[in-house]
Amino acid sequence: MKYLVIRGQNRLEGTLPIHGAKNSVLPILAATLLTGESALHNCPRLSDVDAACGILGHLGSQVRREGACILVRPGNTGDCCIPEEMMRRMRSSIVFLGAIVGRWGRARISLPGGCELGPRPIDLHLAALEKLGVQIREDHGYLDCRAPEGLRGTVIPLPFPSVGATENVVIAACTARGETVVKNAAREPEIDDLAAYLNGCGARIRTAPNGDIHIQGVPALHGGEHRVIADRIAAATYLSCTAAAGGDVTVTGVCSEHLSAVLPCFEEMGCRLWVTPDSVRLQTQGRLRPVRSVRTLPYPGFPTDAQSPLMAAACLADGTSMFVENIFESRYKQVPELRRMGADVEVEGRVALVHGVSRLHGAAVRCTDLRGGAAIAAAALAAEGETTLAQIEHIDRGYEALEENLRRIGADARREEAP
Ligand code: UD1
């Protein structure tokens, strides 16, 4: 069993380059099934990325990593099936569905199980793919998908701007016949990044001024080279760590515009910010002030993934902060763990009231999910004494070498393995 051991209350100082975005690289890896040989730069070392590479390997692609670059050469085993254990390893593996049917006209994938963020249905993905001409049948826990006449473009209005459903359609529609228009599409920067990669491979994807995504199908795509954008959520997490523990840290290589909903919260909490197009410096000044309300929304609203790390900082503010989670149910799983460290948080449905306390204390706690785990690490950096954080495999899904990065900015954090 692996643990993170964090001794809190070191002031954080220094500069931290931000790794590539998990949520970009995963759909881009899926999209390589439809393209030719590709070189993807700035790929973070994450267990979710390994899982996606494993799925590609299973489907016949040759995948090789050279440092932060992943080289993919699509192949063909004739197998269009993702077995259950692979689907379980990475929840977002549903994003492979559009790519597999786009490439082979059929797919068989195990139904993704539930997850720790409440029910995470895939109805929007399936309804959208059906509109493109995919026939979907449930069969003993598997989804059997077939497009006997190939995929054909159409207008797909999404009832909710689901990130994953938008990505599935964008990928599948690239080589469909005719034009596909995704209305009410998700606008997350990772979708633009996916489109940039696909356009570099010969796709014809453009976003209209009203946000609709138009995909003009082409007969085939070729290979390409692409640099994955930086992870805005990792950047928001390290800024939250600094706000919580106190210090002066600059995150670099990240597009600050992607953080436009997050940065005002730090300012409201009394932090000083220096922002350039590709860096953010945050300096704390005395005790944090509360943030009146943080409401998670689809992009460009406040990202749900940054909610829990920011909450860790709010736990130490001089007053009450309110969080409203509008994207996922059960996204306050970190709260009982934060309470073990002395935090005062009330949860009622989608609302969390965080009554700031003057100090937190170290405790034996566990990661409840990826971002919840990051929140607990942020709280541990601010807490008196030592925190032992278990189940860190959640953190390894989305943060490359978290403890090394934290040490780089002055934290006392180490990974330990217990028998
Ligand atoms: C992606 C991100 C995740 C982020 C989330 C919201 C990746 C790999 N993951 O997840 O980090 O937290 O966007 O920004 O990019 N929904 C349905 N039916 C569907 C699909 C979604 O009801 O078919 C619901 C979900 O249950 C959830 C909401 O829509 O409540 C948002 O989900 P979605 O935008 O699809 O998120 P993901 O793509 O799963």
TrEMBL record:
PTM sites of type 2-(S-cysteinyl)pyruvic acid O-phosphothioketal: C115
Alphabetized UniProt keyword annotations: Cell cycle, Cell division, Cell shape, Cell wall biogenesis/degradation, Cytoplasm, Peptidoglycan synthesis, Pyruvate, Transferase
UniProt GO MF annotations: UDP-N-acetylglucosamine 1-carboxyvinyltransferase activity
GO cellular component entries: cytoplasm
Residue sites binding phosphoenolpyruvate per the record: K22, N23
Positions with a binding annotation for UDP-N-acetyl-alpha-D-glucosamine: R91, R120, P121, I122, D123, L124, D305, I327
Active site (catalytic residues): C115 (proton donor)
Subcellular location: Cytoplasm
Pathway: Cell wall biogenesis; peptidoglycan biosynthesis
Pfam family, one: EPSP_synthase
Enzyme Commission number: 2.5.1.7
Entry-linked InterPro entries: Enolpyruvate_Tfrase_dom, Enolpyruvate_Tfrase_sf, MurA_subfamily, RNA3'P_cycl/enolpyr_Trfase_a/b, UDP_GlcNAc_COvinyl_MurA
Domain Enolpyruvate transferase: 7-406
BP terms from Gene Ontology: cell division; cell wall organization; peptidoglycan biosynthetic process; regulation of cell shape; UDP-N-acetylgalactosamine biosynthetic process
Family label: Belongs to the EPSP synthase family. MurA subfamily.
Function: Cell wall formation. Adds enolpyruvyl to UDP-N-acetylglucosamine.
NCBIfam families, alphabetized: murA (TIGR01072), PRK09369.1 (NF006873)
Protein name, UniProt field: UDP-N-acetylglucosamine 1-carboxyvinyltransferase
Gene behind this protein: murA
